Amino acid sequence: MDRMSLEHDSSDSSGQLQIKIQGTEKLELMHLLATEQFRREISDLEDKHSSEEAQRQETIQELTDQVTALEEENGKLQASLDKLRKQQAAREAASALESFPSAAAV
After folding, report:
1. pLDDT at position 1, please?
2. pTM for the predicted model, two decimal places
3. What is the pLDDT of residues 6-60, one digit of tens each?
4. Which of 21, 24, 68, 80 is most buried, taking the most CB atoms under 10 A from its CB?
């Protein structure tokens, strides 16, 4: 037997009416409220997941940009190192030539 009644709670100072639901209607209402709560929770989880995924993608992009910048800097440093090695080899070759007596001095 389904019953729904309106009652005024005199102890409630707000003067609002309370709805009392019994039977099948109460079960249906409880199911509806539980379903809505579940949907809100799922929506909140999806929003949280989307936000976290966006943050992960942003972090990945930042790290990728840092790696690219480091690779470019490494290339510049490697080029400078190669240049210094060539200069050092040229100085060593010039020094070796100077250590041999020249043909004119003999």
Report:
1. 42
2. 0.51
3. 455 555 556 566 666 677 787 888 899 999 999 999 999 999 999 999 999 999 9
4. 21
Q: Collect all residues with Cβ–Cβ distance below 8 Å to 1 and sequence separation of at least 6.
A: 22, 23
| Residue in the structure block whose two tokens are 């389904």 | 2
**Joined tokens for residue 28:** 């249906």
31: helix, coil or strand?
Answer: helix
- DSSP 8-class letter at 71: H
What distance in Å separates the CA atoms of residue 98 and residue 106, rounded to the nearest whole number?
14
Type of residue at 92: E
User: CA-CA distance, 39 to 36, in Å (whole number)?
Assistant: 5
